[in-house]
Inverse folding.
C-alpha cells in the first residue's frame, strides 16, 4: 500500500476568501465557487480545501479563508494507474507541500508565533510552504529544482547527467552572487543556481507583501537539492534569514537499516516527503 504525493504544473494552490458556511456544506458547493480561482475547468479538476481562519469583511459579513487545492483529474488518474501497474495499492493522494509541512511539524513540536518557510527541493519541482504554528499560510510550487542545475552543467561541459551531478556536488554554488566562475561548471551552476535562489527569495517576498502576513523566523531546506554546497549560505544572504537543513527523522524510532549514522544523516533531508506522506496516513 502506498500514498501518492502530487506536485507539478497541473496542481494549483490558492488562498481564497469565501462566504462562511459549515465545512460540510462548503465541500458540497466547492465546485460552484472554485472556477473563478483556478486556471482549469472544474469538471476536469479534483478539488479540496484546507480551512485557515474565519473573519468578517468590511461589511460585517462572516467569511472563511481557505487554501484551495485543484489538481488535474487526468494527471491524478494517470499517476494512480502507474502505481497500480507496479503492483501497488494506492490508499491516498496527498499534496506534496502538505507532506513537507506535516514532516516539519512532527520534527519541531514547538512553534513560534512567527512564520517558518519550508523549501523542499526535488529534481524538477520545489515546494515552498510558509506556515505559522503548523497552519499553512502560503504554498507555491516552483517548476525547477536540483536537476535543472545538473542539466545546465551537463550541457555546458558536454557530459552525461551522472558525471554532471558529481561535478555539481563537488563544485557547489558560489558563496556570494557573481562569485569566482573560472571553470565552465562554475558558470553553469551560478547561472542556474543563482536564478533558483532568486525564485525562492521572490516567493517569500510575495508572501510577506500580503496583508496580515507574519514575519518569517527561519527557512528550513529539505529534498535532494538541499545538499548543494553553498546553497544554505546563498539563501541566508538573499533572504537575510537563518537557513537550516530539515531533520525529519529526529523524532522517529529508526530500526535496523544497514546504514551507518553518517549515511542516515546524508539521506535524512531527502526523506522529508516520504515521512510526511506516511504521517498523513497515521493521523
Amino acid at each position: 500500500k502506498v500514498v501518492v504525493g502530487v506536485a507539478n504544473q497541473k496542481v494549483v494552490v490558492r488562498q481564497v476568501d469565501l462566504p462562511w458556511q459549515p465545512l460540510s456544506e462548503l465541500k458540497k458547493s466547492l465546485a460552484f465557487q472554485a472556477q473563478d480561482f483556478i486556471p482549469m475547468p472544474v469538471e476536469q479538476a479534483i478539488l479540496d480545501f484546507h480551512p485557515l481562519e474565519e473573519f468578517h469583511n468590511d461589511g460585517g459579513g462572516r467569511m472563511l479563508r481557505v487554501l484551495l487545492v485543484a489538481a488535474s483529474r487526468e494527471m491524478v488518474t494517470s499517476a494512480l494507474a502507474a502505481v497500480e501497474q507496479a503492483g501497488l495499492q494506492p490508499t491516498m493522494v496527498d499534496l506534496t507541500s502538505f507532506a513537507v509541512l506535516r514532516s516539519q511539524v512532527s520534527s519541531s513540536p514547538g512553534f513560534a508565533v512567527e512564520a517558518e518557510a519550508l523549501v523542499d527541493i526535488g529534481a524538477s519541482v520545489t515546494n515552498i510552504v510558509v506556515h505559522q504554528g503548523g497552519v499553512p499560510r502560503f504554498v507555491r510550487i516552483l517548476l525547477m529544482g536540483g536537476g535543472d542545475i545538473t542539466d545546465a552543467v551537463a550541457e555546458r561541459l558536454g557530459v552525461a547527467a551522472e558525471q554532471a551531478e558529481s561535478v555539481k556536488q563537488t563544485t557547489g554554488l558560489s558563496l556570494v552572487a557573481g562569485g569566482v566562475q573560472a571553470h565552465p561548471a562554475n558558470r553553469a551552476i551560478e547561472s542556474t543556481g543563482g536564478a533558483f535562489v532568486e525564485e525562492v527569495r521572490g516567493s517569500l517576498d510575495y508572501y510577506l507583501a500580503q496583508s496580515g502576513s507574519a514575519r518569517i523566523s527561519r527557512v528550513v531546506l529539505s529534498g535532494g537539492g538541499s545538499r548543494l554546497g553553498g546553497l544554505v549560505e546563498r539563501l541566508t544572504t538573499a533572504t537575510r534569514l537563518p537557513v537550516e537543513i530539515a531533520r525529519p527523522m529526529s523524532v522517529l524510532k529508526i530500526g535496523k537499516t544497514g546504514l551507518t549514522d553518517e549515511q542516515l544523516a546524508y539521506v535524512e533531508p531527502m526523506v522529508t516527503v516520504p515521512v510526511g506522506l506516511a504521517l498523513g496516513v497515521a493521523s
Strands lie at 2-6, 11-19, 45-56, 62-72, 90-95, 115-121, 126-132, 135-142, 216-222, 243-245.
